[in-house]
Give the backbone structure.
Amino acid sequence: MGQTMFASQGVFILFSFLPTIFNLILAVFAIYFVVKIVKFTNEKIKLDREKNEKLSEIIKVLTEDKKD
């Protein structure tokens, strides 16, 4: 028959899996963080392009006003 598992053995088994669980959680967090950074960067690039286009339009209007 099987051997009886004592509480101290269960704690030892739990502690033996803690580094693996910690590494898994850390890897998932790192992937999540990278995805969020990429999304933020893409949004920022889009907004910066729009701002640059608006600034270009303002500069064109101001230079036309100075010529007149």
